[in-house]
Fold these 4 entries.
Entry 1:
Amino acid sequence: ETYGRVIVEAMSAGLPVVALAGPSIVDLLQDGITGRLVFPRSPRVFAAVVVKLLGDSRKLSLFRAHAKAEAQAKYGSVASWNQLFGVYKMVAEIHHG
């Protein structure tokens, strides 16, 4: 997933995310808060991070709560509407200003 849509969908569902650190992913995921970013790109390292997280129910609960709140705040319907409204407002100011 190069655009991170699945990351935002998972976070919106309250799922902690483990993802390979990539250009768009590092902008979406807060390592250690909403999930885990994996460095380097290694299947062994990725699997170890997933297994460790699955064994830590406290951290899983924290990541779930933070992920859902982050997704709602940044990508929920209210946030999306505010961004769209901001674009319309800017366009209106350019044409009428």
Entry 2:
Amino acid sequence: AILSIQHDDSPLRKITMSTGVYIYNPGDIINCNDIDRVIDKADTALYRSKHDGRNRITFFDEVE
């Protein structure tokens, strides 16, 4: 179900949600030093969502 929650301070007058996703593959080797790279990739996808129009889910794509 889609909720339409009013937000008077928003230009769209409702709450929107943008999400950035990075998929970690089970076969990948990761250690504590790599966690910042994983977060950076998800963050990159998040800001791509916001840039591309908000209210969407964007997956990180290393090719781009």
Entry 3:
Amino acid sequence: MFLKRYGFLIAVLIGAAILVGKYLYMQPKFINGEVAPNIETNLISGEAFKLSDLKGSYVLLDFWGSWCGPCRAEFPKLKALHEKYAGKTLKNGAKLEVVSIALETSTKVDRLAKVIEMQGLDWKYHILDPINGSLFDAAIATKLYGVREIPTKYLINPDGYIIGVNLSYEEMSNILEKAL
């Protein structure tokens, strides 16, 4: 009798709990004001990379994948942001650096380099972060930042603190305009 009377309500509550749980699970690991974890890896060029070496610059970490339609759809806005601020000196001599972190099932750097060239992503810092199928936890930088979906972006200030997670390009541009 209880299930007949309250079964629908129980099903709705279970569904809501699942949706809330998924939402919380998908949230990035860090929020504004936290210190950005240091990434130490190699760029696709083979050059050693440490995020901490970019301290003193604004850094946009862009987690993406060549197989990700929404990521590729954002490229024009990402390129426009980079072009607008590349080479400009912001407050205290800071620059904007974009660090692209590609989540790929293939570890073929030449394949990724072709995608980067075709898309015109002409900044220096490109990282291949191999994933295992759809398991992002296998990727080092991705796991470090708790990225569960892409595209995901972190904006880091010159002092190494996260000042924005998944901001719109307009919001990022506003922050950088204030830093001019």
Entry 4:
Amino acid sequence: MSEPDPALPSGLAELYFAPKAFESPALYRALGVGVAQRVVVWLGRRTGRDPTRPNNYFVWDRSPQGLRAFEKKTRSNELMHLAGMILPALALAQGADGVLGVVLALILLLTVYPVLLQRYNRARIYRVLAD
């Protein structure tokens, strides 16, 4: 892989957001991220999202600048989904069980896929911009 794109963010946040060495397409495929991606794209189209205009579902501009802009959106999307995982995780850690425990576990499971999808997309964008 060539040198990283200097226009991509750097610093403390980059320690978290930068793709890690173990984040390979094969890993994400094994985790079922491809299925989650198809569901998100389907939902985006069903809700009237226009794939040619800036939004959080589709890469609308495949230029380096457009990819950088979309990469920034993956960060904010990931943070929102991580924040949505905090309360269910805390409730489960406190011993929520029964129906509530099952519901909270499902919320966590369904919320982790958007986080993985953002990381998968970011890793792909980094590879494209590094070439």
